[in-house]
Amino acid sequence: MLSFVLPIFAVILTGYLFARTRVIDKAGTRLLNDYVLFVALPALLFIAVARADPSELRQWDFMGATLIGIAVAFLAGIAAIRATGVRWPSASIPAMAASYGTTGYMGVPLVIAVLGAPAAVPAAIATILHNIPVIIAVILAHDLFAQRNGGGGGGGLTAIGGALKTTLTNPLTVAVVAGAIVSFSGLTLPDSVARFADFLGAAAGPSALFALGLGLAQLDAAKLRDVARVFAILPLIAIKVLLQPLVTLLAGLYLFGMELRDLWFVCAVVMAAQPIGAGVFVFAAKYDYFEDETTIAIIASLLVTLITLPLLLAWLVVG
Fold first, then answer.
1. How far apart are CA 244 and CA 277, in angstroms?
2. At residue 1, does pLDDT exceed 70?
3. What sign has the CA pseudo-torsion 35, 129, 59, 160?
4. Residue 231 burial by CB count (10 A; 0-12/13-18/19+): exposed, middle or buried?
5. Are 310 and 5 in contact (CB under 8 A)?
6. Neighbours of 196 (CB within 10 A)
């Protein structure tokens, strides 16, 4: 198992060391991130879903277990931060940290590297499931609260519309939806289009992991020495990397009767066990709350998963 997992983390380390030994500014890192987000990863997800049999896209057990894990983690995150006196809607940002993982940048290449090309379809669906509900919840929490307190807006429908627009125009969502349309319609992609998507998609995994290393090198690791803030985010990290995959695992096995070594089951649990996603920082900055804590949480959760993910994969795949 280590022979599969170590090269993945080695690519992240390579990106980190490259950024530490070269003059790489945030603009350069952003350019590579944009390439992954808007070009390579959408190509990979699109072609994987487009080639899938429609029956593969009706994995309700997989979807149910995944969504239950997300919901429990989000609610647990709210409970953990509310216990410290944080009120709504600010509590939605820590709750997002507790339930929103690095599924695209790390989860997709990880499961494909370990489980092979067939894992691309469940990885694609899991990426969307881990993005849409949480992002919508955070946007609605802040928009509806602002409207209730005289912050303008056109009411609840406007807030819902804005949240849906943000999530449904995400390039990863667009790619999966487009691939699903091709799959369900029975259309045959021209060879040139399929090869084009394959060519771009082949670069998604290494590029995403390398970009993750670049970003990690530019985070302020000194903040990890802020003991008070570290203790504030420890419950959120535990919820994200331990509780969420545990709930997903139990829901899959006991609520939906999934099999322990089943590809879809393994993908559901591994995608739930990803570290806190960098997207949380985007919303923390947008709503000007929990920014430093989010930075610490992203770094710390990634370090934790360097241990937990190999152990989880060794148990799930090897037994």
1. 14
2. no
3. negative
4. exposed
5. yes
6. 14
- The first and second tokens of residue 169, run together, are 């125009």
Q: Would you list the domain boundaries of the chain?
A: 2-318
| 37 neighbors 224 (Cβ within 8 angstroms) | no
Q: Classify domain 2-318 at the CATH topology level.
A: Na+/H+ antiporter like fold (1.20.1530)
Angle 130-131-134 from CA coordinates, rounded to 5°: 90
Residue with tokens 């990397």: 241
pTM of the model: 0.83
Examine residue 89 and say whether the peptide bond preceding it is cis (omega within 30 degrees of 0): yes
In the DSSP assignment, the letter for residue 117 is: G
Tell me the per-residue pLDDT of 241-291, one tens digit each, with 9 for 90 and over.
999 999 999 999 999 999 988 999 999 999 999 999 878 887 887 888 888
Amino acid at residue number 203: A
